[in-house]
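Structure ticket #2291
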Amino acid sequence: MSGTPGDRAVQDDVIRALADAPYRASLEWRRRELADPDRVERYARFVARHFYHERIVHFFKYSRALARVTGRTPEAILKSPPFETLLPGIILGSRDTAAAVARLVTAHVAAGQARVPYLADLLRYEETMMVVEAGPRVWRDGASSGGAGSPKGAPAGPGERFRPETVEGTVLLELSFDLPCILPKLLQPWTDVPQAPERRTKLLVARSAYGRVAVARSDESVAAVVRLADGRRTLGEIAGVAGLGVKDLEAALQGLVDLGAVRFSSGS
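Resolution: structure written out below.
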C-alpha cells in the first residue's frame, strides 16, 4: 500500500513501537499520541508471544519431542510469570531478547526429572541455535547488515589487504555427547528414548547475513582459525599460530565463509 513519506514514517514508527518495548515506554513515543497506549501494549504483547512461540517451537523441537519423558513443553514458558517479566524489555528479533527467552526455555525443560543423559547438551545446542539466528540481517540484495569487506575472492597470502574475521554471533559449541547422530531420530517415532554416543564433539554454529543458520562439525584446527580470525591478522600470521599451511588455511577459510562464520575485512 502506497502513501506519502509522512504516512510511511508514521507506519514505521507504529511498527517500531509494537516490536520494541523500551521504545514503546519512552517519552519520544508517548508524546506523539499516535494510538491508544493500552491497546498498543496489549497487541504488542500478543505479537511478542506469537513471535517467540514460532521460534521456540522451531529451535527447541528436539526438546519438544522429548516432552513425553521430561514432562516439559518448551513453549509453556510463554504463559509463565518469568516471561511476563521480560515483556517490558523485549525487542523482537534482537539477540539479547532471544538469549533471555532461550534461557527461560532451557531452565524450564532442565527442571524436569527425566533421565536423558544428553539433555543438558541438547538444551545448549537448541539455545545456541535460537540466539545465533537472531540479530540484524540483510533483507534484500544490495542492503547492508553492517558487515564490512568482501566475503569471497579476497586476495590470499601473508601480505594481503583483506583479512579474515569471525562474524559476530558465531559460536563454537563443545559437547559431551555426539548429538548430530541422534537428532533426526528424536523427530521420528520412538518408544525408547534414542541414545547419543558419549564422545566429545565440537560444533560450529553460524548464520549467514540473510539469516540462514548452519551447523558443522569442527576440529581443533578449525576452532583455532575461528578464534584467531580477528580482522587484524594476515593469513600467514594465522597459519603460523594455528600450525597450518597457508593453502590448507585458505581451504578452511572458504568453508567457513560459505558457512557464514567468517568474512573478510579490509586491513589497515
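Closing remark: Confidence is low (pLDDT under 50) at residues 142-159.
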